[in-house]
């Protein structure tokens, strides 16, 4: 769930959520990577650890002026390096204590429905993340369910019950350990 950051950076409203489709992923992968220097990487690492850090504290932590920091964060957002600011919610605290990763393989005739399938699944309340994959499986879906019955119904109704789905495999998650930062 996107939240406003307490930094001076987020005075503007947060960008509307972009639907990430396989086509957009390919487009992003084929475009040149944004150039990031050591200061940009330090800013990103600090924001990944705490997106609510105030701009002045962020600037001090990376050793630049507050106005420079504000400009750099704005540039990182405009270039799409920073996609948003999010709250890390505990699904169990919200009544969804069972988490699972579900592999989905689509029917070979359903290739033209992949984008619609991904959009539909991403909108389901149990779904936390949808990953479009290369390899034997087409998707990996991270879900949080109330209980095993809710998880079973999710798989049977939304996945196995879909004629475009050839196979599903559900793996329960015992524990999720969040990494500090992809840049660390």
Question: Would you kindly provide a brief summary of this structure?
Answer:
The chain has about 180 residues and is an alpha+beta fold.
In percent, how helical is the residue content?
25-40%
Q: What fraction strand? A: 15-25%
CATH architectural designation of the largest domain: 2-Layer Sandwich
The general outline is elongated
Read across the widest sheet, the strand sequence of neighbours is: 2-3-1-4
- Gap from first CA to last CA: 24 Å
Enter the CATH topology name of the largest domain: Alpha-Beta Plaits
Give descriptors for this structure:
single chain, disordered N terminus, four-stranded antiparallel β-sheet, 6 helices, elongated, 184 residues, Alpha-Beta Plaits, alpha+beta, 35% helix, Arc Repressor Mutant, subunit A
